[in-house]
Amino acid sequence: MRIITSAAALALLSPALAAAQVTSTNQPVAVEIVASGDLEVPATKLTMTISFTETGSSQAAADKARDAKIARIEQALQEQGLAPSVLSPVPDGEPPLSITTIEVGPVAGSGEEADPVSKRPTFSTLWAKTLTVGSSAKATAIKAALKKIGVMIGSEAADLDEASLASAQREAKAKALRTARADAEVYAKEMGLRVNRIVRISEAGNGLFLPGFQAKIATAISKGPQLLASMFKPGPGTVTVEKGLVVEFELSR
Question: Pick the residue with more confidence: 20 or 152?
């Protein structure tokens, strides 16, 4: 009993001796690694809201100006090789197409002459659609064309189609597994062992918080808010895909 106690005490003081104590029995050692793999993938769907407002002295005049602008938009799409089907209603539903506003002139008795023209109603027509294209290059080209004709461009949202997302997720898993294997090799080398086999792989935690997420947040916070923000903001026209794994390895001689 005394010898065991002494050996345990020495093992706590010396990591090298602790490793020797573990491996001296020639029993396999299990090590569990938490790893993640991430990559930025070019988006296959880029969505933005486009809109404009036209005004006129009558509703008919405003509608005529609106229809002329829509024709120019359709022409711009055609020149970029895009069909009208790339346009769809905005997520919250179609905005009102006809809004009547009235500009009121100076109040009587204010010392200023009332301008009859300023009291005339001004008719405004608002038009908005969601535009979806398949590449960053196409999005850049069509945005430039639409801005030339006075169309407002909303913020751009990048996404992947189902096939591209599934492919990227598989690649991220493979990257996570390679990282886990490399970490296991570090442990094995330090203990004078080798990685014998993988015992278990788990994707548990691939939801809101990936395995190792807390460690990543701690690292980002320690290096400043800019790095923390970059974790959640992919590059322009790309989508970040990340997968985490928990991998258990068997180490042996």
Answer: 152
